[in-house]
Every structure is written in structure tokens, then in C-alpha cells.
Amino acid sequence: MKHIFLAAAVLAAPLLFSVNAPAAEPMRALIVDGQNNHKVWPKTTQMMKSYLEDTKLFTVDVATAAPRGSDPNFKPEFGIYDVVVCNFGHGAARWPAETEKAFENFVGDGGGFVVVHAADNSFPDWTAYNEMIGIGGWGGRNEKSGPYVYTNNEGDLIRDTSAGRGGNHGKQWEFPVVVRDREHPITRGMPVEWLHAQDELYDQLRGPALNMQILATAESQVTKRHEPMIFTVKYGKGRVFHTPMGHAEYSQECVGFITTLQRGTEWAATGKVSIAIPDDFPTADRLSSRKYDE
Fold first, then answer.
1. Which end of the chain is more exposed for a tag (fewer CB within 10 A), N or C?
2. Does 3 score more than 80 pLDDT?
3. Does residue 238 lie within any of the structural domains?
């Protein structure tokens, strides 16, 4: 009987050790779009979808509103997602009231939110949205919207309440991004300075700027001050990642943008970042882009 028991144990052992723990389910991301003053938006939505899916951490759906006016049928089921990425733009019509409320509840209750480029031009009259994005531009934003927010050359945060419009940019160019917070999960491991591909450098953004943390800046050729390029906002229990970068397809082909989007989206969804800085990440004196293959 002793020999039979040992033989059975030996035969069973390979089975016991060959069983792997089930892989974690991918997180669910939703990109919302449909109205944007940037005509390239259908392509940038697909680019961002591809970039997120490339991480193997996300499955990505897209919810597209009608091309004009408030769309009564725009009612994404936010609650089934871990994170929502906004690719709306300047002039976008407000969502139905129940959709806006559902989204406010989603983020406030702990959902992740990602704001890319012209999404901070959207919905100037939606109070909760402006609290979520921290700062934005255009759409009539002015001193009533909140302060300008930027850093000085020493990296000190400036909240400037002077009068003036919100939102501006100079000509597109390849500009250096300066990492201000090297310990945050999104920017940890990035070079202190790296070159971003041709893009619009938004300046003079203003808004409530509540619970906002600047992670990286770029010096505007217009204002001569360091404008936020990577930052986060806490809204209720939710985490918001915001980057004003990403104007066109060539801007989003920048490895710096791709990596920032991927890491920022993971952080918004989980509060942590597991995605590594890739070997081809740009440096202070070298641009790095990946041609998007549709």
C-alpha cells in the first residue's frame, strides 16, 4: 500500500505543477469621439486604440456621437469600463444630461479618465468636465474659468489669476518636454528632457485646476513660460490623466506620446504603471517616431 501511494503521488505531481494561474483579464477602455475641429480625429482615435491594445493590457471600444448637435442616442455604458479616453474637440455639442451625469458618476466613483489634446477645448460650460480636465482653452474660457497654470524656470507652480482668454498656441514645432516629477508612476524612468515630434504646444490654458499635479512641461515660444504637457487631476475617487499633446497623426507617432498615453491610461485605470520605457524613447537630442501602419 505504501508503494502504491508513492507511485500515485509521483504520477500526480506533474499535473499539480503544470497548472498555471489564470492570466488576468484585460482592462476595458472606451474612446469617445465624434465631434472635433481636428479633421484627423477618426485616424487619431484608431491610432490611440491601437497603441492601447498593443500593451495587451486593454481591450478598446469606441463610442462615436453624431457629427453635429447634441446626440440623444449618445449613451455609452460607462460603468462597464475601467477608463474612458476623450477625443472630442473644440465646438463639440454637450452630451445629453443623463449621459453627462452618468459620466460624472463614473469618474467620481473611481473610474479613470484620459484627456488628449483638443479634448481640453471641449464643453466650456460643463462645470464638472472642467473640474475633471483641470485646465482647458478656447470656447470662451477666460478669468471666470479659473487661473492660468504654469511653472517658472525654477519649476515653481504658478496660478495666475490675471484677466485674459484661455487657450492659444504658436506654430507647430518639435519641442523639448521637461519632466518635473520624476517619481510619479507615469514619468518615472523618462529622461529629464526629451524631444517631442512636431505638434501644437498649447499655452495660456486655464480652469479650476483643483487637485492638479504637473508632471512635465514645455516652454512656449509665445508665452516664454513652461506650460503643462503631462499632468494629473483627482476628481472624487477618480484619476484623470491629461496631455495637451497629440494634434495630428505625426504628433501621435512620437514614441514619447505613445508611451505617455499608454502609461497615463494604465495609471488612470489602476493608479499604477507596469509599462516600461521603451529603448527607442526620445532623448534630449534625438527625436523618435514610429510610422503608424493602418
1. N
2. no
3. yes
Rounded average pLDDT over 175-180: 98
- Cβ atoms 118, 90 nearer than 8 A: yes
Cα–Cα distances in Å, from 210 out to 126, 234, 264, 294? 15, 8, 19, 38
Using one digit for the tens of pLDDT, what is the confidence trace for 82-108? 999 999 999 999 999 999 999 999 999
C-alpha cell at 78: 460607462
Quick one: angle between helices 255-270 and 41-54, nearest 10? 70
CATH classification at residue 139: 3.40.50.880
Bridge pairing between strands 157-160 and 148-151: antiparallel
Is 1 domain-assigned?
no
* Helices of type H across the chain: 2-18, 41-54, 97-108, 127-133, 249-252, 255-270
Of the chain, the end-to-end C-alpha distance in Å amounts to: 65
Q: Would you say 203 and 168 are in contact if contact means Cβ atoms under 8 Å apart? A: yes
DSSP structural state of residue 213: E
**CB-count exposure of residue 250 (10 Å: 0-12, 13-18, 19+):** middle
Question: In the numeric block, which cell numbers belong to residue 212?
Answer: 492638479
- Reply yes or no on whether the pLDDT at 173 is more than 90: yes
Domain that holds residue 257: 27-270
Residue 21: inside a domain, yes or no? no
Total domains present in the chain: 1
Alpha carbons 231 and 291: distance in angstroms, whole number: 26
Residue 105, CA distances (Å) to 64, 74, 99, 108, 270 in order: 20, 16, 10, 5, 17
Side-chain half-sphere of 146: how many Cα atoms within 13 Å?
22
Which pTM was predicted? 0.92
Beta carbons of 165 and 204 less than 8 angstroms apart: yes
Residue 128 to residue 125: CA distance in whole angstroms: 9
Q: Which helix (H) or strand (E) holds 240?
A: strand 238-243
